[in-house]
Structures are given as structure tokens and as C-alpha cells.
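Residues determine shape. Next comes a sample protein:
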Amino acid sequence: KSDVNVREEIEEFFPRMWKINQDKRRLMKSIKDQKIKIEWGKKLNRRLVR
């Protein structure tokens, strides 16, 4: 394989990795937000029950 092919493959590969990482980050953020909402819901429910 020539260096040009390798470089092209790397350039193909990295944007994909970057996008996957961004999607993961977005997913983690939404999961975190949902957990926070659930925690708040529990706290509010406890207050309402009392």
C-alpha cells in the first residue's frame, strides 16, 4: 500500500470516529438529563406525599 491510500483511509476513519464520539456524548448528556429529571421527580413526589 502507498502512503496516499493510508492517509485517505485515516481521513475517512477519523471523521467517523469523531461523529461516533459526538453521538455518544449527546447520548450520555440526554441520559444524564433524564436521570436528573427522575431524581427531581422523586424529590417532588416525596414532598407531595408528606
Notes: The chain has one domain: 1-50. The two ends are 71 Å apart (CA to CA). Residues 1-50 form one domain.
